[in-house]
Write a structure and sequence with these properties.
Elements: H1 6-23, H2 34-50, H3 55-76, H4 85-95, H5 107-125, H6 127-130, H7 135-154, H8 158-174, E1 175-177, H9 179-184, H10 192-205, H11 209-220, H12 229-250, H13 255-264, H14 267-276, H15 280-286, H16 295-346, H17 353-372, H18 379-393, E2 402-404, H19 412-439, H20 444-467, H21 480-505, H22 508-541
Helix pairs in contact: 1-8, 2-22, 3-7, 4-5, 5-7, 5-12, 7-11, 8-10, 10-13, 11-12, 14-16, 14-18, 16-17, 16-18, 16-20, 17-20, 19-20, 19-21, 20-21
């Protein structure tokens, strides 16, 4: 037997508490009509394809979409009527299958209404927003943060937050920052913990900016979820500054260095979470810490958790590849094909259906090649994972240290040379694609659009392949071929990332979808449910 570390004991207690809360029942729950639920849930599946994100982000994406629509309506009415906003929002979320039917307590509606009122107060009383200086980005950010709090209220992420805190507590002791970084003023000593926290949120659960922002607000203001009037007023006065500070922290020049360390060592923490979330029998045993105090038992549990996660990883990656590709086709490819058709029509040229088909097939084939080329972790990786998991579980004398160092400075001449090499490799990559397509008599507009397709797919495929490495802890061996692929594909990935980010901000297709389909459909589903209840009442009267 070995003694568990204090942080591991705390994690076990928090997981046991989470499972105890899940089992609690008896309070009245929210019910929506089953027919309306099936209709709305089908629509949400269609929306999943239109604006696909990581699976764990899809629910909040829907909350943001619906909350923005309601905030827009409130603004038109000068925030005069907010009384039933929470109830309508929660009912719509349950109808869409985003939260389970007959599981959420009715009291949660009042909690959600308090959250909505809190953020409306901030919008109305923030000085910069009053003067019109805050802008649309701040407005969107505030609604996104409100969506995070609403999601956490309806589906508390106790285990996820406990695992983040668990890794955070240990990584604070392991990550050391070079004094030269503090001397250069790239990072302040008081901001190191924040960078570690951000990196852990990204590494463990691939959280996005809104939820990280919300977590940082809770980190800064621990009582934010149950904030009184005084705290809400204080945050309201400084909300714009808080947003700017968080945005600055998210783009710190050293952020990637913190992330790379946390991403490499996140596997043991993920597996520890899987072990404690295992069977009901084990969770009862884990409550007193006796089972995993035995290294041989823990070793077998690590193997089981690793095997299960590895087996589900392939399915998740395939699903991510399919959904992201379909999403790209619908929101980007079809839009660009339509643009190509309009350009060809304007130039008086005949449309070539075969070439248009090839335009669509090229990205499909490219994504297929990227996904099929993803490597699984080797057997050696399991041994490394087991050793690291043992290290975090038990008390030990020595801590591993991971140092954040200054990047080596490059002279002006060297920077110019490296930039020229990068530009040259980009020219070779895009020029080669253009020459091949030109050889097969593709129109100039088609060549430009195909290059955009390929760049976006390269970026999406790279993101999917990185997710496939979430269990890999062994050092990746690079050969000459991988070096060459980096040299020539990196410019394409960079262009794809830029296009994807711009598309998120200026996605006319999604805006059109929201205006023409989303809002009318929501009204229709609400009417369908009320009509169903009306029919039931009339049937009850006929006795």
């Amino acid at each position: 037997m070995q003694e568990l570390s204090e942080s591991t004991k705390k994690l076990i207690a928090q997981y046991s508490l989470a499972q105890h809360d899940i089992k609690k029942s008896g309070a009245p729950t929210i019910h929506v009509d089953e027919v309306a639920l099936k209709v709305a849930a089908f629509y949400e599946q269609i929306r999943t394809i239109v604006d696909w994100k990581e699976e764990h982000l899809m629910r909040r994406s829907a909350i943001i979409r619906k909350l923005k629509r309601r905030f827009f309506d409130l603004e038109l009415n000068n925030f005069s009527e907010t009384g039933d906003m929470a109830e309508n929002l929660v009912l719509e979320l349950i109808r869409g299958g985003l939260f389970p039917n007959d599981k959420i307590e009715e009291s949660k509606i009042n909690d959600v209404q308090k959250i909505i009122n809190k953020y409306i107060y901030i919008l109305k009383n923030n000085p910069e927003n009053k003067m019109g200086k805050a802008g649309l980005n701040f407005y969107n950010w505030l609604i996104e943060v409100a969506s995070c709090e609403i999601e956490e209220t309806l589906a508390p992420s106790i285990k996820e937050m406990a695992l983040i805190d668990y890794m955070f507590g240990q990584m604070k002791e392991k990550i050391k920052v070079s004094d030269k970084i503090f001397e250069s003023r790239i990072l302040k000593k008081e901001d190191v913990d924040i960078q570690i926290y951000i990196a852990i949120c990204l590494a463990l659960f691939k959280l996005d900016k809104p939820i990280i922002s919300y977590n940082l607000i809770k980190y800064e203001y621990p009582k934010w979820q149950k904030a009184d009037e005084q705290l809400i007023s204080k945050v309201s006065e400084n909300a714009f500054g808080i947003w700017l500070k968080i945005e600055k922290e998210l783009i710190n020049p050293l952020a990637n260095k913190f992330y790379n360390i946390c991403e490499k060592y996140d596997t043991p923490y993920l597996l520890m979470g899987d072990i404690l979330s295992g069977s009901e029998d084990y969770s009862n045993a884990a409550e007193n810490g006796k089972e995993i105090s035995d290294p041989s038992v823990l070793e077998n549990l690590i193997k089981d958790a690793y095997t299960k996660r590895l087996s589900t990883l392939k399915a998740r990656i395939s699903r991510a590849a399919i959904y992201s590709t379909i999403s790209i086709f619908i929101t980007k490819v079809l839009s660009l094909v339509l643009l190509e058709v309009l350009i060809e029509e304007a130039m008086g040229e005949n449309l070539n259906i075969l070439l248009l088909s090839v335009d669509v097939l090229i990205p499909t084939f490219l994504m297929f090649m990227i996904v099929t080329g993803i490597k699984r972790p080797s057997k050696k990786n399991l041994n490394i994972v087991m050793l690291e998991t043992m290290k975090i579980a038990y008390k030990k004398g020595n801590n591993d240290i991971y140092e954040i160092k200054m990047s080596k400075k490059k002279g002006v001449v060297m920077r110019i040379i490296l930039s020229l090499v990068y530009v040259f490799s980009a020219f070779i990559t895009f020029g080669g694609i253009a020459l091949i397509l030109d050889h097969f008599k593709f129109p100039k507009t088609s060549i430009v659009i195909d290059i955009i397709f390929i760049a976006v797919i390269l970026f999406a495929g790279t993101a999917v392949s990185k997710r496939a490495q979430e269990l890999t802890m062994e050092e990746e061996k690079e050969d000459f071929l991988s070096f060459l692929s980096d040299v020539f594909f990196l410019p394409g990935q960079g262009l794809g990332r830029w296009i994807s980010n711009k598309w998120k901000r200026y996605n006319a297709f999604t805006a059109l979808f929201n205006a023409l389909i989303d809002m009318p459909f929501s009204v229709f589903v609400e009417f369908l449910e009320k009509w169903r209840y009306f029919i039931k009442e009339r049937k009850e009267e006929i006795r």
